[in-house]
Amino acid sequence: MSRRCIVHIDIDAFFAAVEELLDPSLKGKPVIVGGLPHERGVASTASYEARKYGIHSGMPLRKAYQLCPHGRFIRGNYQVYQAFSRSFSEILSRYTPDMEVASLDEAYLDLTRCRPLYASFSRTVREIKQVVERELGLAVSVGVGPNKTLAKLATNLAKPGGLFEVQPGEEEAFLKDLRIELLPGIGPKAQVIFRMLNIHKIGDLWGLPRATLRSLFGLNGEAIYLQARGIDSRPLVTAAVPKSVSRETTFLEDLWEQRLLLAHLAYLCDRLTLALRKDRLFAHIVEVKVRYSDFKTEGRRRLLISPLQEMGEIFRISRELFIELFSGSRLSLRLVGVKASDLVRGRPLSLFEPYSERQERLGSAVDHVRGKYGFGSLLTVRERMLDEVYSFERNRGFVLKTASLTK
Ligand SMILES: [Mg+2]
Q1: 106 is a catalytic site residue
Q2: Residue 17, CA distances (Å) to 256, 328, 381 in order
Q3: Fold of 14-78
């Protein structure tokens, strides 16, 4: 197997850095986020300036106050941090669909599958770091290695604000002098035992037989044995992508007029693409389904080279598929549906078609207005016609039924 390229990226002193961004007077001051000095509770983040006084996250606020009475104590606003965190993962998702969000301010990227897209991993990683810092206004530390353990250890060395890459063949030299407590498998209890054994650095662990580690720490000992040698084949834990997203309408009365049916189809595509955008999904397959008045059901699908999310494109394809299905029919329809499948998450990096930023911005503007004023507040020309029919038919109990997300 070829060497993987795993990137670990971590925002430095996240909460404190956001507070400094919002209130520049805090810059260069010891900032402690988590509560006011007299309050119970602990510091959730300390700025690097505050760390000079020995303050760290998890420390009781009163103790932090004793160490640094002139520190700037802030309660913090979780919703603001969440908004920053969402932008953080959105930016990262532009570079690869293989992403694990480890926490609000920390993520892993696996660039291995994207190798054909990037001339040089090192250059791409530098670019990712620059783009995140420019767009968020926050400093990040980045570690690169052949697996999650090494990438995360590299980030430790990169802090604050740096980038560290573990080069092929240099894994042992890199690990040798690191303190053992940096390994994720080594907690406070294990640290005590290793101290008694006079083991302080990762290199010191190499002399211990696997069986010894296993008898000392059980399964965790196995993990320590492998981690100490830089061996880690764990895949990234990416958020589950649904198999398909579909929307369909069953009419209370069968319909035959093509113009009206296309208006329904436009509406369904609109709802479908709203769901895709919400979940940052792109579809490789678009499928249209119809059910005739005799209950016979037929479908047509199209496989797309570059996956799509845009309403206009998905409707254009659906319309063609629908006309192929319906044009020869002598029957009216009782149902029409549209489905997107073979989904990927995150803006796909296409070699063939540069993506339309204009379309994307239009989509998010439409979502924004609808989120505020309801779906019906904005309709396409085609849907407008449907709206007229609805208001006309409303008294007769015209009903729309829509299907949902299938996992
Ligand atoms: Mg951090």
Answers
A1: yes
A2: 60, 63, 46
A3: MutS, DNA mismatch repair protein, domain I (3.40.1170)
